[in-house]
Design goal:
Chain lengths: 374, 315
Amino acid sequence: MAPVRLAGIFKAFGAVQALHDVSLDIADGQLMVLLGPSGCGKTTLLRAIAGLETTDAGDIFIAGRRVNDVPAHRRNVAMVFQSYALYPNLTVFENIAFPLRARRVPESDLTERVRAAAERVGVRELLERRPGQLSGGQRQRVAIARAIVREPEVFLLDEPLSNLDAQLRAHMRAEITRLQRRLGTTTVLVTHDQVEAMTMGDRITVMHQGRIQQTGSPVDIYLHPANTFVAGFVGSPPMNPVAARVAARAGQSGLSLGGQGEGWIDLPAAARPALAQAEAVTVGVRPEDLALTADGTGLVAGRVDLVEYLGSDTLVTVVGGGLEWLIKLGGGPRVAPQQQVALTAPPDRVYLFGDGGDLIGTLGELGSAAHAAG
Amino acid sequence: MSRTAAAPERKSLPGEPAVPAPRAPRRLASVGPYAVMALPAALVIAFVAIPIVETAVKSFDQLGPRGQVTGFAGLLNYRSLFAQPVFIISLQNTLTYAVAAVVLCVAVAFVLAQLLSSRAGASRPLLVSIFSPTVMPMIAAANIWLYFLAPRIGLFGQLLSALGLHGTNLLGEPGSALGVLVALFVWKFAPYFALFIMAGLQAIPQSVREALRTEDPTGWYAFRRVVLPMLAPMMAFVTTMALLYSVETIDPVYVMTQGGPNNGTTLVMFYLYQLGFNYFSWGPAAALSALLMGSLSTLSGLSLIGLERRAFHWQ
């Protein structure tokens, strides 16, 4: 049983605050993805767990043991590096055997374990080769075999798929996920790729500028983004963010969308207390939640600017006033450029973010209904 | 044949020359590199190649006191060289000196490189003080050491006096004098070779070092199985260079001991110098030059071939 617990981790590199009060609980056997853009601190956090990086403050617990002062090799964690870090002068067999030899595992036991690990990742027939003779995907497998052979309490994977081509990446993604489920070992995976995060993670931690933005299941992260950063980072294409103001029109308070009030959303009485403090808000709607209405009424009216057919989907860019909306429609193109359309979205998929960017709630939750400006 | 050759040729349009491509630039491009090389090549031929060949040829001639050829000698120069007891002593001295100097120098360089590669060791004043011997000319370094070692007034002599060893003259005994030369060699060249070894250490990818950190409990196994093999080509290079430098040693002998006491520091290069410029014994001097040249170039050639073989390329 090896849960990992991080409590109030701080780390600075000179003037740059790489980690700022990071606290995180990773349950035993869970695959936790650290997701964020480059420079967000996710790799630093992983390295801190591995013991390759010291922290300025805070505690790290692995299986209930505080490991702050425990050197990397005594933490019983295995790291898979982005560049694989295979030993170029050793054969695949010796690479995989290395952690066992270093721990003086008896020869008979060692051979068996190396072969079993190689079998698991499908490099059994490559054991006599050297890393220089392997393809990227094969090196990746050897690196994983070297990690699993000593049965560590925690796996740490640093962007394990970033050096592979797109096809191989999808394949290895599924393979690593399957392997992790089978072994049931607590795993922390760092990635900047939201598809990897969504597909592989039991839970996702979104990081930005050294701080945790949100931790939750992939569904949570997608349906209930904690703030505009998470909403914009997760989802492809990203959520449409539209600046809006709380305003009154004809005695009815609502949200005026865009700089010149190109769109209008009525706010019922129930929603007003939640928005009482907010002057400027951001309205967010995911491209796949937007639909084109036939009768010309909706959140906003506009003109089709661009139609991009992707095969399974079609991306439509609609310009309404000064605002640009991206819509993802299933199937083939049903509209043509220059066509006048109106957009609508289910109220529980229209997100309202406050001044600081934090989620206030969806329109549905706030008890409102969307109407077009007319 | 002629038909197939003519087929792809483009027909000339009226007024167009049959061979449209101007060839002058191409000719220039093929001559250009040789023109650039001409001067350095001439210098190398005049001051390196010709003297080498001439020395090798003259080692089989009888030579007068001004170096003029007085007759054919065959292997006589070589025989008379090996008949000299001092030559045999100089060979023994050089062997002792070279083995001790190379082993110590490479070992010290290795430790230095390790220390300086760690963050704690790489402070600027420390680096400057360690590398200053490297940039100093050997003549200057030898003179400084001469002052240090002067009995009674030298720094070293005073330190020994403080320990109760009055009047110790390290350059006054054959064994200790050779030891001083070894120490000087290590002091002068170990930091220099440490630079090469540091470069070798830095060529090991950061992630490989970190992988080793997470896997090896003691560090010794990681060092022996991964770091040392990855460093091996560089170590072989450094060892070869150190060996060449040590066999070539002459200036400290000239400045500090003149081969004494009792030929205890007569190294082969100094003996060669004496043969020519003290005894005007040009024939044996040419023979010894040819021998040294042959053995040293064979040695460096072999080690280069070995390096090529052993160097492996990763990533």
